[in-house]
Design a protein that fits this description.
Shape: globular
Helix content: 40-55%
Strand content: 5-15%
Largest sheet: 2 strands, antiparallel
Number of strands: 2
Strand order of the largest sheet: 1-2
Structural class: alpha+beta
Length: about 100
């Protein structure tokens, strides 16, 4: 299944966060990586990935620091890992023999 850049970013971040992947932690990691996105865009992307079967979500336990609200926890499925690996491979192949440093001069 083909995915786009933002979907790949979400899958990569969710995978790296493991058991700590939820909306706010995903947004924080994207911000740290220079990929600022609104929480609404993140949730829309997560909804899209879940509809494609590339992630699964579950509601975590309510926490006091969130005013008793539960977090929507996110996990990459096997299909999601394959889609991300395919996207990454496609970028590597497409970038073969490209020298960005020379182009940007």
């Amino acid at each position: 299944m083909a995915i786009g850049e933002f979907e790949y970013l979400l899958l990569a971040v969710v995978s790296s966060l493991q058991d700590e992947a939820y909306g706010a932690s995903i947004r924080k990691r994207l911000l740290e990586d220079g990929q600022a996105r609104s929480i609404g865009a993140i949730h829309t992307g997560l909804d899209r990935l879940e509809a494609k079967g590339l992630i699964v979500t579950r509601m975590g336990e309510p926490t006091a620091e969130r005013g008793g609200r539960a977090k929507r926890m996110v996990k990459v499925t096997a299909a999601g890992a394959r889609a991300a690996a395919d996207f990454y491979k496609m970028i590597l192949v497409a970038s073969r023999d490209v020298q960005w440093a020379e182009i940007s001069r």
